[in-house]
Amino acid sequence: MKHLALLLSAALLLAGPALAVQFDRILPAQSALSFVSKQMGVPVEGQFRRFTAQIAFDPARPDTGRAALEVELASFDMGSREVYEEVIGRNWFDVRQHPTARFVATGLKHLGGERYEVRGQLTLKGRTREVVAPFSYRQQGRHAVLEGAFPLRRLDYGIGTGPWGDTSIVADEVLVRFRFVAAEAAAAAGGPAPGTRPPGKP
Amino acid sequence: MLTEYTRTAIALHWIIAALILAALPLGLIMTGLPLSPQKLKFYAWHKWLGVTVFVLAVVRLLWRVRHPPPPLPASVPAWQRSAASVLHACLYVLMLAIPLAGWLMSSAKGFQTVYLGILPIPDLIAKDEALGKTLATVHAWLAYALIALLMVHVAAALKHHFIDRDDVLRRMLPRLPPPKETT
Known about the structure:
Chain A has helices at 2-14, 17-20, 81-87; strands at 23-26, 32-39, 42-48, 51-56, 66-72, 76-77, 100-112, 115-124, 127-140, 143-153, 170-184.
């Protein structure tokens, strides 16, 4: 059994640094977090300009992956001042009471090919629900591009209440889209075996 | 040559008239409303009305090619004949141009038009804030022009009916069955 493990890790190492790559830094300028909401059947897109993410993703060992995302809700942008004033208010995000949304991954798995899936807890406006988001992983030079989307029901989180609760005007379902560009962990390339962490890092 | 309007022409005239008379006040009111579900609903209805007017105006023009309108009564002076045909041409242009400008404006502002909330109409132009503002101005001024021309159109029809006492208005009215002869 031990021999098998050794053999496997040797094989992994021999397979080249690509397999040992761990991505752990999100590059905010190249990453995007957006959503599509339907108003009277019309898809309308918006974005969150400011968010921070901590990830550790090794495409060869997705089960070791970790991800946590914090979104500054006041960085919401739908291209309209009027919409902004409304949406940061109490009926929608209520950013004064709940300035951030948080996502913490609880599980990552490989679906095959470049497809992966992340499962986690999303906390929005003080309510936490589980979400599952499929995403694709592509390597671009020394960067990983993680791109995916998942639907959520805004009313599950109490978003768009009062007169806006009428889902025939603004649909309950909102599609959240993300595109994260992550850089390789500095010491990972060609360095330690997959899964191990470089010394001196928390 | 036809001596009267076809039923189809009459129906198209009045259906389009009703749609325009709904779309115009909606458009005038909705832009000033504070953001609310009501406002979104008004915008959607306004766009659906506009799309319908555009399609029906095309149908009407095609119909008109095969079924030319009856000539004006001989009593109408030449300048009024010219004025009428220019006015009608302008109305047709506006029935097409206003929805077109509205649709393009909507695309430029980043809102696709989805007819009846079901049928997405492709965006011909990409999102462009400055262009959106320009098109909004164009859309509004064309609509003001339409309001002015419609007033002339209605005034002329009423003048024909009440002052000239000819059948210019009556021939465009929905045809009612003739009154029963009482002997």
